[in-house]
Amino acid sequence: MPDRTRSADRRGGTWKTIAAGAGFLAAFILAPLFGGVFVLGAVAGFIADGYRAHQDDELRAVAISTTGTIDAIDVRHFTENFGPGRTECVPQVSGTANGEPHTWDLVDYAACGGAYEVGQRLQVMYDPSDVDRALLADRDAGGVRARSTGVHVQLLVVGVGLAAVGTGCWLWVVRSGRGRREQQPSS
Description:
- This protein is of the alpha+beta class.
- 44% of the residues lie in helices and 25% in strands.
- The protein is built from 2 helices and 5 strands; from the N terminus they run H-E-E-E-E-E-H.
- The chain has a 5-stranded antiparallel β-sheet, covered by helices on one side.
- Helix 1 packs antiparallel against helix 2.
- The longest helix is centred in the N-terminal third of the chain and has 50 residues.
- The mean pLDDT is 81.
């Protein structure tokens, strides 16, 4: 039915209805849903970081410390399905483990932008029963683990914001009485 034949108060009602439906879907359904998923993802990330930190502490309890030298920085580029991908600069450190020469590929401490230089000396801690299991003695060393906490905080902030929008919309509906229908007295 064309808009010309409708009454003045009904013109444009189709587009208003579509816009209202899209707004309802975004505010009342998607915001709380995605907010909850983001919050759960952030909490899972914090738990995983805590677990990794616990593993590092267990390794530090039994580890033997040695001084190693960065022989090379292996630049690795990973392509993702969508987007530009990511680049990691992994230090390859050589030193002595259990009296034998050994080279560690410190993937957990990958950092680009001049964080490491060839020839730089680092303090490496390794497990004497499994010399490939190693970490840097410096707890503040740059790397993947240090950056992941910032991502979890960002997810948490976005998730709480979306959940708050969705909760606010539902509270508005409940408090304003728009969600209730008038009860007809039964006869």
